């Protein structure tokens, strides 16, 4: 099919013109009009009529705004912006706000400057918004006053900005500065290059022939641009799209005629500002004298409330929506309200996704419904709509099942279908290209574009019998069982089943075809599979069917594929029979769900309280399903529940739920519940201003990259000594290589401080508390005694493990860095426990700190998804990198490059260059990364583990995968390298050992899950680890048991192997059990040397430095204990 504009008179254009003439006979003029001029024309006629209505859906009277008030408020904002802004060549103003009564006047005020508005979604990931703002080189942004705290807390570490002195009504004007702001969306180098090559290829292809005509659109023209958006980026880099008035005004004018809009109509603002159909909704209404209805997002997500507001309270007449958004109402509500016989809705326009089948559409319509239904199609890159098709009434009333065509080009729009060879076709299948003389937008860095440029859509259609029928997106074409398959076919067939309310299909990890179904009548999965097998070829039958209560959708009203993938990853079959009415029912319901997950539903016997899930026939997949069913039962997510299910008895799961759901008070993490879990939420406080509390200065360093000699110790006996040739002169020759392993015996010589007297209570924040003499240490056989030296209040539970750093310039002093669930990171003097500084982050801290190669920074992850880089001498925030989910993993540093590696719950591994403040690479790990990475220098491999059971070996330089092994069950344990092997614990109770080339050497089995990470001896001939069976194990490197020591409770923490000359140079091992006991063992025999009881649970791993053991506790304190031997007692 040749590219034709709708006014050129071909078959499609003729149909379109007939539709227009039949509608009103109005001839439209597209030349030179701007959106604000359309509104001014309407306001001059309808000044006293309601322009905007805002209804919060809370029973309070709605707010109304007339056209006169709208224009006056917009003019005041325009004057304010002209007074305070110094615009460059391209005039753009950001708008950071929620939907409200003033929203249209703010947009109109920006347009009248004239400038383009660039909406910023407060709920969008900050990293994506910063990428968009910098890509636009946005200089000014208007922030709603009610959102200013959220803005500052979200962007304080990502943006440089000035808050101008003058605010305007409910807005604050900020000026942005982009110097030294590094932004990256962390696509891999290969993918980013592919995206850029693809854009360049499309541009050359699209513009061929047009450059000869010297007509070009120029974004720098003063009145050119209307608004700026970005694409979703789900298939690559998000593209910035600058939309000229000349591109969007034809849509507005044609839809006014096509939908026969009058001043009596009420249109609903269904789309967020960041989705370009919102411009159509706003300006079709406000250019016609009609009323625009605005509701908050909290109402949009409640179908019954939204239906009442739209069709009972305000009698909406025109609704433009995605099919997914309409499906959210449910077929019953659609039929009884939205498309009923008495509905106020005259026009329903569905677009942005594949149109529903006629069978589904008929099932939605009530008897006698007369609503006009349209299929509209377009892409953001040619904002907003390109084609339309009105479903004939006779088609809706017939029983024939025909595909619904995309219809006819809108006036001024050129539509072309190209085959695989890139040439236009008249029949057959190909990709859609869109454009037109004025229907052109500017993508990314484009400043001028030839008129008539055609853009590739990524959508594939088939042309037959003069119609164009949607097949699906290019990325929905997959190859399965050796056959080509369009996943849209599976969705259409499934949705055509009578019992299916709605459905969605994903190609999970490019390995499994998953069908998500919302059923009408609680249909059994087997019944759906039988029907699909009758209707689909064998290669198209899904691998898995997941029943869900509703389909997730994005803020743009489309299916949220990433959320569906999370649903499948967690096996969320939320079809619980009943809800929990009180804690009295909890035990009974938990028993029922337990039996159901294990396939024991018919067993009348009660589950014994000591039953452990994994020992009763459960596995990780069944555990995730049980997790989903429990959370569906109680109606909320329960932090840490998966870990409790995997490692604890049913009675302990019950206790964990009781504490989470029915707290009598704001408890700290008490010692009565051994399974690991999150502490209580800190709350929704905004992140603090970022100023660190500074108690006493550590040694000051001259510059960020100055190399400082230091030695650092972290959990699992990980010792790093950098630039220490001069620092350790008394130890004899020491190479000045970038990384030296230093024995604990050598470290003794760095510090010769006698055990200090217990410090008295400090009078200020985060004080060091003296431990009363009544707390007598329990001492086992042998020559070692543990005695508390100091404890420091961290404000909340301390699950992170300590990092101890001794800087040569500060010898013999050492500093302990540790975070807690109070959001604080503390720097404590090892000798006295005094606070050197503290820094408050944006959320809880479970990640353990890691020191930089230069010694000037520490890196720590946070529950808010940020990885913070703090200056080690004062705690000031140097940089923060944003991931998309909580970061509980601890970073590791590559001493050869200085790069940091860390994982996130967003299922990615990251490599960060903190000196350049950028992400070097990002890798999808196909599972949540809870464990901390491990680095091997020979071979140069980086190891990551996931809760999906994958152990990955990665090239640290490129981020490419070297090999991967499926361990079958979740990996909470962190991998540990030695010269020959890499070891890791698994929740199935096995310690696994692999070569550096991915070959499994051996496995050692315990009787319970392993969450503890392995620790090796200095000789690397032994590996130590703990298990939830309550034991500490020592195996040799052949997988043979050397000894086993039984503690009093589960062992979650990682042991620490060391030699201590104060204790006779014995080879010792420090361990901790969850009941709060600290154990010192002979690492060669496993014999007990000492034990000490702390007053709270311990999940933190101990670190020993110079006969001092440091560990965090769930009584909200960090403890330092002296190891005393022989005469020192």
TrEMBL record:
InterPro entries, A to Z: AASDH_AMP, ACP-like_sf, AMP-bd_C, AMP-bd_C_sf, AMP-binding_CS, AMP-dep_synth/lig_dom, ANL_N_sf, Beta-ala_Activ/Resist
Cited SMART domains: PQQ
Alphabetized SUPFAM superfamilies for the sequence: Acetyl-CoA synthetase-like, ACP-like, Quinoprotein alcohol dehydrogenase-like
Record's keyword annotation contains Ligase: yes
Domain Carrier, residue spans: 584-661
BP GO annotations: amino acid activation for nonribosomal peptide biosynthetic process; beta-alanine metabolic process; fatty acid metabolic process
Gene Ontology molecular function terms on file: ATP binding; ligase activity
Bilayer-spanning residue ranges: none
Keywords for the protein's UniProt record, in alphabetical order: ATP-binding, Fatty acid metabolism, Ligase, Lipid metabolism, Nucleotide-binding, Phosphopantetheine, Phosphoprotein
Protein family according to the UniProt entry: Belongs to the ATP-dependent AMP-binding enzyme family.
Protein name as annotated: Beta-alanine-activating enzyme
Provenance organism: Catagonus wagneri (Chacoan peccary)
Origin organism lineage: Eukaryota, Metazoa, Chordata, Craniata, Vertebrata
Gene: AASDH
